[in-house]
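Researcher: Go.
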Amino acid sequence: MKQIPGTELLIKALRAEGVDTVFGYPGGMVTDIFEELYNQDDIRVILPRHEQALVHEADGYARSTGKIGVCLVTSGPGATNTVTGIATAYYDSVPLLVLTGQVPCNLIGNDAFQEADIIGITRGICKYGVILKKREDLGRVLKEAFYIAQTGKPGPVIIDLPKDVMAQLGDSIYPDTVNIRGYKPSTGVHIGQLKRGIDLLKHAKRPLFLIGGGVTIAHAHDQLTDLVNQTHIPVVTTIMGKGAIDTDHPYYIGNIGMHGTYAGNMAISSCDVLFSIGTRFSDRVTGKISDFAKHAKIVHIDIDSSSISRNIVVDVPIVADAKEAIAAMQRYVKEYDTAQWMEEIHAWDREHPLHMKKGRGITPEAIIDAVSEHKENAIVVTDVGQHQMWTTQYLKMDASTRLLTSGGMGTMGYGLPGAIGAQLARPDKRVFCITGDGGFQMNIQEMATAVAQELPIVICLFNNHYLGMVRQFQALFYRRHYSSVCTRRRKNCPVRCGGPSSICPDYTPDFVKLAESYGALGLRVQEESQIPSAIEQALANTQGPTIIEFVIACDELVFPMVPGGNALNDMILDY
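Model: Structure:
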């Protein structure tokens, strides 16, 4: 049998698994692997400018395709820089394979140069992590990694690769099958449990579907739409579930949770049967747990058994893939009379519709509405902050639109690299990155990656001169003590500042000039009437990214808002 080095078997495994793109940053312990990548032509290697962004780019690639995102970094700081990206993927169930270089085995534990126990560091934020100690295990470990990352509840898998092990000769076999004792992902649907849940609908007056990110991950848009058309049961979503059904569907009510719609939060608080599919009931969704859907019998469908009854105790637990469960439901449900219930929901919507007040310059709603005009065949990627919440509130979506956002970890700096990964994966799609001046600067160096790859990403940068979400909390709950949130602040500013005034310094950087310095197009929009033409100009720039800086009022707040510890029906509606 032909003997080959571990580096060559790794490339063989990537090909066998259909990997066409690797996001990699070189260094001493992975130079041999990069040499192997250099000697082949069928796997594209993307060089980002920072390892955190590298993982976010692989994450955006994975979310937009359903394929596994592959990362390759060196040991020590190369590996530790991936931690935030790994955590982001873990909490949003994104399948990644993170390959980290490691010092030779004889140096492990000796505080060698650029040695780090990345498996120990990431144990709580990855689906599986292993250090390769023997060359003969390489093929099996890689096969298991791909299988674990993509099956059941997806997630990141980390393989730590000592340099000497990867250089050793061994067999050239990459397994065709995998058999991991103790890891048997659930398949199929327990029909008995499903029927128990459906039986609750027989006498329900206010039934409700709560849809989370698991439905999006399962690509069950069409099945969910058919189910809702069949049952006439209204639908609310988490922010990760937005887009699982068209936003203009007559039975779609909106998001729920901390910044959910008034009608959506009231519907959760008033329903009598809640069918929850593909959500883990995070605190941002539930509000005060003891008051969450307290009048309802709750059915919870999720592929991860550990998520069921962890935060919210449910009446009917069902461990199943969302798509399979929804398809099975269609065989047993019927059309239910929800006309009176829908009128009650519509009355709440009329009472407090989701709209922003005019008169303070450009409203975020107007920007999102303009982006929505191009929703067909689009991917919208957000960073984290107020702009993220406005996007999840106002973005119009249909079956051809995807929304990528950091929901579970809430990672500032995700937006630009996530958009880069999505555009690399889907050159046939329009990609919009909606970001804020704070989050954008956390991975601003990736403008170089976007320019180098000639990616026509439209970057909609909301500049309110503040870290807006924290400022909102300070405005509402901390007596307007704006501590460390002004992004214009300089050393000669007053120690305590109550807000902007005529003596405030200019903003740094000038985002238009910054775009130009990278070789990109930069635009600034200060009037609402300029929004459509700016977006059209950006879309016409197909040879690289465009930054559109939208200057918005610093005191725009996200409403409704459920303060921490409040029930969902106890919302702040205005300021």
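Model: The chain is about 35% helix and 15% strand.
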